[in-house]
Structures are given as C-alpha cells and as structure tokens.
Write a structure and sequence with these properties.
heterodimer, A: 626 residues, alpha/beta, TIM Barrel, Rossmann fold, 3 domains, seven-stranded mixed β-sheet, six-stranded parallel β-sheet, 23 helices, 25 strands, globular, B: 420 residues, 2 domains, seven-stranded parallel β-sheet
C-alpha cells in the first residue's frame, strides 16, 4: 500500500518528527511504500501541499498531530480532500491521544485516529486494509460509528528493541539544517507531575531499550548519515541510573566521537557524580533540568517527587562534571504569583545556570493541572491556539491570585530581569528623563522593539541599521516609536564601510546612551568596536526576540559575543599570513591580468538606436591600418 | 528528461528567481521533466522538498573573504558537485545566476550545459554595465575599456570586492565560450552577448513568460480593486540606482495632476528613497509598500492606472512589465535594454527617453489624463502577453533549447574525449 505521512507546520523549526520515522520504518518492514512530507520544514501553503499529495497519489494519509499543529492539520486535510479524494485520512500523535474525541467531532474528514505508541497498531491497520480484513479490531484506535465514537484500548509496546530503527530516508527534506540525530533510548515516565502529559501519552510504565542496541543504532546512523551529534529525546533518560551509566560506558568504549545533548530534561534527583562524569566523558555537553519553580511551596505542590535541594545538588554535579546546564521554568502554575516568580528568578540566579527558559503553563487535557483549571481557574484561550515549547507569549489560562496581566508582567520580568533591575535602579534614583537607548541592529531582529517599549514605556530609542532594516524601521519612525534612525548605506568598498561605521560609533559615543542593545548575529568585530569606542554603561546582546545577554568583562560566558574560538582565530591567522606572503604574487597576477586586458584590444561597441541595437568595431585605428 | 539546475539563490528573491520557480513548476507538472536543484548554502536558501535538492557550500563562492579561503571553498564545492553529477547523471545542466568558474568548469566537463543570462555579470566587472564616472550605460565589451573607464583599475590593484572578483569573472567569461547554449532574454541582451565574442550558434533567444489569466477575470479584478477617485501609479522592483527609482520620484514631483504613487520595493537605496521623498515633499503622495510576493503585488497592478518601469541600465528583460500587461495595465518605461521588445510604444504603453525625467512625467500624465487610452493600452498589452509571453511558448522553446544543447554537448564531450 502507498502511504503518505505528513508532519504539519506549527512546531519547532529544525526538529525532526521522530514518531513518523518510527512509523515509516514499521510500515516499510511490512512491505508498504512510505513517504514523509515534512511541511513543518518546507512551510508550503496548503494548496501547494494538496497538489504534491495528488501527484504522489497515496492510498492512505497519516497526520502526526501535536496540540500546536492541530489547526494546520485540519486545514491541510481539508485542502487535500478538495483535490484528491482517493486516500483515507487518519491521525495520530500527542494531541490525538489527549483529545481524540474532540478531534474526531471537529474534523469529519478523519476516519480513524491512533492512540499512544502506534508502530504496531498502525502497521496492523494497514496490513488489514491491504488484506481486505476488518480494521475495527485494531488495538489503540478510535473511530466514528454513526454518532458514536468507538475506542479500542491501547496496548503499550513492552519491548522497544523489537521495533525497527527509525527511517529518515523517506523524509522529503532530509537532512535539515543543523541536523542532530534524534535518539530515543526509553519511553514512559512513572512520575505524577501535575502539569505533565507524558504519563498519558507514553504510559506510566517506563520501558528502556537495551543500551547495546542503542549504540548499534548510533553506529548505523554514523555510517549512513555521517552524524556528529545526537540528542536524547527520552521522557526520563536517567530513571534507571545504572542503565544510563551502562549506555555512557558503552559509548566511551566504542569511541564513536559523538557530541550529544539531553535537552528534553533529566531528573536532578537521579543524577550522581559518577553518572555526570560518565556522561561528560561519553560526549554529553549540555543537559537540561526541569525546575519549573523556585518557590518551595509551588515546587512541592506540583508533585515532582523531588526537592529544591535535589535541584541545587543536581545542577552542581552537572556543572562539576563540566557540562552546560539549562533550566526550564513554568510561569502560571496553580498558586503562582508575582512574588513567587520573583523567588523563582532569585533561585534561578543562585543556581548559576548556563541558560534558562521561562514558558507559560499550557494545561494539556487530562493532566491534573487541567482538572484544577476546570474547578478553580479560567480558560483564556483555546490550547490549540497557544504557543507550545516556544518563547512566544500566549496565555491560555489563569488561576485565582495570578491574573493575565500579572502573568504577562512575570513573563517579562523573568526573561528580562537585568532590564528590570536597571529600570528599578533608575526609579530608586528618581531619574525622570526618559531612558536613552540605542539598538545596533545590523541584521534586523524583528519584534524586539515591542519588548523594549513594554519594559521601559516611553523612552528615547535610536536605531542603527543597514539598508536591510531601513523600510521596517522607517515605518516605526513615522509612527513615533523610534526617535532617530541611522543607516549605513550600501557600498561595495570595505574600507568605506568601516569608515562609515566608525564615524557613526563616534557620534553615538557623544550621544551618551543609558543602554545599548546589539544584535548578536552582527559581526563580532563591530561589537568589540562598540565596546572600545562607545564604552557603554550597559551593553546587551540581542540573541533573539526573546533572549538578551548582558555583557560583562568579568563574565566569561559573555566573551563569546566579542571573541572567536581560538581554533578559528588560529585558522584565520594562518590564512592572513598566507595572504600576506602570497600578496606580491596576487598583486603581480592582478597587474599581469590588467596589462593583458589593456593590450587585448578587440570587440565591438554596442549602440542602442530606436530601431535595434547596433554593433560597431571598437578599434578604429587598426581598421585604418588594414 | 532530467535537468539539473545550478543556481545561487533558491527562494523568491527577484525576477530571475520567480522565473526559475515558475519554470521548475511547469516543467514538472506540464511536461513531466525531472528537476534537480543544486544551490549555494545561503542562510535564506531552504530546501522545499518538492524535488531533489542539494545545498553545496561554495558553489557560488566569491573571493570577498580572502583568496585562500575562496580557493579552498571552490575546490571543496567542486568535489561535492562532481559527486552530485555522477549520482544524478542529468541529461542537461541549466545554469542560472552563477559566476563561479570552478563550478561552471565542472559541469561543462560532465554534461551538456545551458546558461541563462539574467544580468550583465557575465561580461561586466562591476555588475550593472554602468560607467562609474558618469553612470551612463557602458557600450563597451569586457576588455581594456574596463581599465580605462575606471571600472577595474583602482579595484584590481587595491583588492576591493570587484577587484578580487575580476580574475574569476574573466575565467567564467572565457569558460562560457564552451557553453552549449546561452539564453538571452531580449535583443539588447543578445547584442551584448555577441559583442562579447560569443558565437551566434551558441545563443538562443528566449524571452521571459508570466502567468496568463482569463480576460474576464482580469477585468473584474481590476474593477474590484480600482480606486476610482485616485490616479494610482505603481512601481515594483528593487530600490537601486539601475532600476531608476530616484528618476521616478523626480518625475512624480513634476506631475501636475493629483496622484498616489505606490512603491512596491526594498533594496540598497531605501534610505535615499525616504530622503528623496522628503526633499521633494512627496510624503502625502507616495506610499512605500515594501517588498511583496507576486500574488500581493498583483493586487497593486490591478489597482494601478499606470505601471512605471524607469530602469536606466541595459534592462535584460524586466518581468514587471509583462506582469503588468498580463493584468491589462498600461506601462510607461524608459527606452532601454530589453524593454522595447515587449513594450510597443503607443500600443501597449509609452516609452520615454532614457533618464529624461520631464519626458517620463509627461508620458505618465498622458495616461492619467486619458484613462480610456490607458485601458486600451492595457488591453493591447494583455493580448500581447497572451500571444507572445505565455508559458506554452516558453516551455516549448526551452525544451528545444535543451534538445539542441544536448546534441551540441554530446559532440563537444565526444571531441574532448577524442583529444584526450
């Protein structure tokens, strides 16, 4: 059978839908033809997708649905149905498992949905269709029977080692940019965190793969795709520390020279120094820890099954082993308030994390938090319209004592705490003049201006940009958001450009700004020039619309924005030395080329007349001699 | 047939890229041609997944970051390109905007090749064929005049960007002598290609095409989107010197009739455009729309009473003109480059003397004052596009060019092997 799997848009860019790759492998091993359209990567409009689907002409189309992609799934499915009616539409994925009844009711174009892990049930379903058998007896499916929705119970996959390895070759856009091999070594999580839906999706029963099989998978991936990095996507990688240690030991033994990350979060209470050191030795460079809240009462109320002391200890061990630590926090948990968020921010700063992320609570259907919301809170937004695992500010719900405006305020405080400190210091000193800000935005970071306005209110905001940002910022200037706009005009000559930049920087020095923001994607040499020439009181690097880093000479981590890696510097030096040594040669070749051109006097001159272009010989003197 | 397309930009960027995407779409869907894309590793270039796509870093490398670095990138790219060619075995390679001599040499070695010329970069060291001192159109071929007219002399010895590019560009210029087919978009461009020493049998004339629509729908749309109380002028294109946006603003300042000028534009001249609007006191008459997709730009065409193309360089073709005509709109343009090919003066629009601001203003005013005449020009333009610049004619001719390139390429490759 010809099966098309679709990864709809609306999810983190650059990510691979591992679930679909597992399904594809499972179907291929049953002898079916499979392709995956990664629309999240290609971002094509629904009518184009429909055209592509019709061209491929599948018998069945399967959609992987996350809550964030539920709307786009319905839109794509409807568009496909308009031009291509031959295929059966089915869906699966986290959103389906959580709210399949609502999905089936809202989307009549879908006939069947698959709940939980579907590698076995989906293959069984397709085998039955191609064999002309009854499909209603497949485990873990739900379907419409007149006005009723019939659900078959989910059968979890006990032995993950029996599943075929994920197939990425069938994805239309592969490998994506910045490809990190997605690795799953276990599924499920036995903990009962009130905000988490993993237990509902993958089951409370944790199932780990044999570490040797996992290493085998990595070896194959290295051979097949030439991978250099991988990312562990487990819900709970360290639940069995001994198994994790065994995996790391095998990885060290095999010496695959792979760098890896644990950005899906590990439990701080399940890590010890031995495991941390083994992970580091095995190539792990960065680990994320789900902290959620730094307020002890809130932390205890979310039933993570660990304590804040465990978090402090875990973070310390990870740092001790030499890995980066990223902390994940949630704003808007039941009982949260502006004060509790301030305590969380203080806790986060004490931890000394390398990076952190504050997200707004999303109450997923079926979770404890969702039940609390139904009883005590208020829904502000359909969860399908909310942002998921991203920094975009959407507030889907509020609980008593922490209203929408407070959540928004808390979000800005948590993400831009340094700016709030500056603001409060100014208020303390009773400085009444509007804060004077310069934003050096040589590669436009759209959207950051709104953040600045939100935090500082009325301020004097100047922009320094290239022609790329002229149109965007000129409109802002016309609407009064920007006070002055400085633009470096386009020029082909490097020296002229450098001179123009330096001239502007000396002007900015005289303007005496309170704050300077610098888009981090701009050239590092300009950042250094800003520091040396303007000598700003506060310099922030704008990494993205939602992320800023304060520069300090005393913080090694912020040096990365003005310096380059020693290896790169060395390579650049070697290149520069070679350029200098070979400069006479290049100059000579340029001179010879110039002379060659000068004495090679042939060709014709073109003259554009009203009727048609005419070609006239160029070298009149030679013609006369002839 | 399998065609490998070699291009630097693989995103809706300008006219050349729009043409590339339209060509790919119709080749695949109407003619069943298998397309393979090989493109540069620019951050804006993204894989789409509709066809086989390869991103090879350095495929369109330029020696702006240092010569050693450039050579390293080119050799690596050449190696990757060779692998792709061996794997895909295309019947013909279609080179779009790409000047890297290393990549061109590699494809010439392996397969019959067709080259589309979208701008004068093949035979001009400073890209636009405008003399640096006077900013007049350069009538000379690539050669000693590039030194005497000041296009190359300081740059070559001071290693500025154009100077560093000079030798690779000259190599690319020489390599194109071996090209099986070179596609010129207009008579002006073909004259320029011939002027630069390419053989007549190498050159194929293939003007651009644009999507064509049903007249009834177009007229309905024009009526729906028209602004009857306003004289709307539309400019669509890059904000840069060669596209003549500053001449248009000067001409607008001379107009005696009330009007509103919509600039669908973005580019290196944006700050100058803003400044010029202020100097000429046109703030209330000009609306800067920014760069838009074709679908959205089409709304502006439909709304316009006249579309202006004030280009002051040897315009290779100018897709905007036929897009406006496909939407039954009159065009006023400067007489330069390939514009007279599609704009029949006094029939589908009006031609003004190049760089003559007063003449341009008069021609625009003529149409704004006599809208009936404008409509008749628009209808004539619509008919002309339907007859001459539609996809069927374009694709048929393109396939013929591919076929003749394959024949010529086979002979060339066979002769090469015999010599070896």
């Amino acid at each position: 059978m010809k099966v098309l799997l679709i990864n709809p848009p609306g999810w983190q860019k650059g990510s691979i839908n591992l679930g679909l790759s597992y399904l594809a492998a499972s179907l291929i091993s049953s002898g079916h033809e499979v392709r995956i359209f990664d629309i999240n990567a290609s971002n094509q409009p629904p009518d184009i997708i429909a055209g592509r689907v019709a061209k491929y002409a599948p018998d069945l189309i399967g959609f992987s649905v996350k809550t964030a992609t539920a709307r786009s799934t319905a839109l794509i499915s409807r568009n496909i149905k308009k031009v291509y009616t031959r295929a059966l539409h089915v869906a699966g994925g986290p959103h389906i498992t959580l709210s399949y009844r609502e999905f089936l009711t809202e989307n009549p174009e879908f006939e069947y949905v698959f709940l939980g892990d579907s590698e076995i049930s989906f293959a069984d379903f397709i085998n039955r269709i191609s064999g002309g058998q009854d499909t209603h007896k497949v485990d873990g499916i739900a379907y419409r029977n007149q006005n009723e929705i019939i659900t078959n119970p989910i059968k979890i996959i006990e032995n993950l080692d029996t599943l075929p390895l994920p197939d990425f070759d069938v994805i239309d856009i592969f490998p994506p940019e910045d490809f990190r091999y997605p690795l799953l070594t276990s599924r499920g999580c036995p903990y009962a965190c009130i905000y988490c839906c993993v237990g509902l999706l993958s089951g409370k029963k944790w199932r780990g793969r044999n570490p040797e099989k996992v290493i085998e998978e990595l070896k194959i991936a290295q051979k097949r795709y030439g991978i250099r990095t991988f990312e562990i996507l487990d819900d709970n990688f360290t639940l069995e520390p001994e198994r994790a240690k065994m995996f790391c030991a095998l990885l060290i033994k095999e010496n695959l020279k792979l760098q890896w990350y644990c950005h899906n979060g590990i439990r701080a209470d399940k890590i010890d120094l031995e495991l941390a050191r083994l992970m580091r030795k095995a190539g792990c460079t960065s680990v994320a820890v789900g902290i959620e809240s730094g307020d002890e009462n809130i932390f205890n109320s979310i039933r993570k099954g660990e304590t804040l002391e465990d978090i402090v200890r875990g973070v310390k061990l990870i740092k001790q082993a030499g890995m980066r630590v990223v902390g994940y926090f949630i704003i808007g948990l039941p009982g949260d308030s502006l004060e509790s968020i301030r305590r969380t921010i203080q806790f986060q700063q004490k931890l000394g994390l390398d990076d952190f992320n504050y997200g707004i609570l999303n109450p997923y259907p079926g979770t404890t938090v969702w039940k609390i919301l139904k009883e005590q809170g208020q829904t502000l937004l359909d969860i399908k319209d909310s942002s998921h695992f991203s920094n975009d500010l959407t507030i889907p719900c509020e609980f008593p004592g922490f209203c929408r405006n407070d959540i928004e305020e808390a979000y800005y405080q948590a993400n831009y705490w340094d700016l709030y400190c500056i603001k409060e210091r100014r208020e303390y000193r009773c400085e009444k003049s509007p804060v004077k800000i310069l934003f050096i935005d040589l590669f436009p970071q759209d959207g950051f201006l709104e953040t600045v306005r939100k935090i500082f209110g009325k301020c004097h905001l100047d922009i320094f940009t290239t022609w790329h940002g002229t149109h965007h910022y000129s409109q802002k200037k016309d609407s009064g958001i920007i006070s002055a706009l400085y633009v470096i005009e386009h020029t082909e000559r490097k020296l002229e450009k450098i001179f123009k930049v330096l001239k502007h920087l000396s002007l900015f020095r005289r303007n005496r700004y309170d704050l300077i923001f610098f888009s981090a994607s701009s050239r590092k040499s300009i950042a250094l020039a800003v520091l040396v020439i303007i000598r700003p009181r506060h310099l922030f690097f704008v990494v993205s619309q939602h992320k800023i880093i304060r520069f300090s000479w005393f913080q090694k981590s912020s040096w990365g924005y003005i310096t380059i890696h020693p290896f790169l510097l060395f390579a650049k030096l070697i290149k520069a030395v070679l350029d200098i040594i070979l400069y006479p040669l290049f100059w000579l070749s340029a001179l010879i080329f110039g002379l060659f051109l000068y004495f090679k006097r042939n060709g014709k001159k073109v003259i554009f007349t009203k009727d048609k272009p005419l070609l006239i010989p160029l070298t009149k003197r030679r013609n006369r001699k002839r | 047939m399998k065609v490998l397309h070699l291009c630097d930009h693989y995103r809706p960027f300008g006219g050349a890229e729009k043409l590339l995407f339209d060509t790919l779409f119709y080749l695949e869907n109407d003619l069943g041609v298998e397309n393979v894309i090989v493109t540069e590793n620019y951050p804006e270039n993204h894989l789409i997944g509709e066809r086989k796509e390869y991103i090879i870093p350095g495929i369109a490398a330029q020696p702006t970051g240092g010569i050693i670095d450039y050579l390293g990138r080119c050799f690596t790219a050449r190696k990757h390109l060779r692998r792709v060619l061996e794997k895909e075995k295309p019947d013909v390679v279609h080179i779009h905007n790409l000047q890297n001599p290393f990549s061109i040499a590699e494809v010439l070695k392996a397969s019959p090749c067709v080259r589309s010329i979208h701008d004068p970069r093949l035979y001009c060291f400073n890209n636009w064929r405008l003399l640096p001192k006077t900013r007049e159109i350069c009538p000379y071929p690539l050669g000693y005049k590039c030194l005497t007219e000041g296009c190359l002399l300081p740059n070559l010895l001071t290693f500025s960007n154009d100077g560093r590019n000079a030798i690779p560009r000259y190599l690319s210029y020489r390599l194109h002598r071996k090209m099986d087919k070179i596609i010129g978009l207009s008579q002006a461009m073909i004259s320029c290609i011939l002027q630069n020493g390419y053989r007549e049998e190498q050159i194929a004339y293939l003007p651009n095409f644009t999507a064509t629509y049903d007249l009834k729908n177009v007229l309905e749309r024009n009526i729906r989107l028209a602004r009857p109380n306003e004289n709307s002028i539309v400019f669509a294109g890059r904000a840069s010197h060669e596209k003549g946006i500053d001449y248009l603003l000067e001409a607008a300042a001379l107009l005696k009739v009330p009007f509103r000028l919509y600039l669908v534009t973005d580019g290196p001249y944006m700050s100058r455009v803003y400044a010029k609007i202020k100097i000429l006191k046109l703030e209330n008459k000009v609306e800067l729309v920014g760069a838009l997709s074709y679908e959205k730009t089409r709304d502006y065409y439909s709304m316009a009473d006249v579309v202006v193309v004030p280009s002051v360089w040897i315009e290779p073709f100018c897709l905007v003109g036929i897009e406006a005509m496909a939407n039954a709109k009159p065009v006023v343009a400067y007489r330069t480059g390939g514009i007279p090919d599609w704009l029949v003066d006094g029939k589908t629009g009006l031609l003004a003397e190049c760089k003559n601001v007063i003449d341009l203003a008069e021609k625009i005013e003529n149409i704004l004052l006599d809208k009936e005449k404008g409509i008749s020009y628009g209808l004539a333009g619509f008919k002309r596009v339907q007859e001459k610049y539609n996809k069927d004619i374009y694709l048929t001719n393109l396939l013929k060019i591919y076929a003749s390139a394959i024949d010529a390429g086979k002979i060339r490759l066979r002769n090469k092997q015999t010599v070896k």
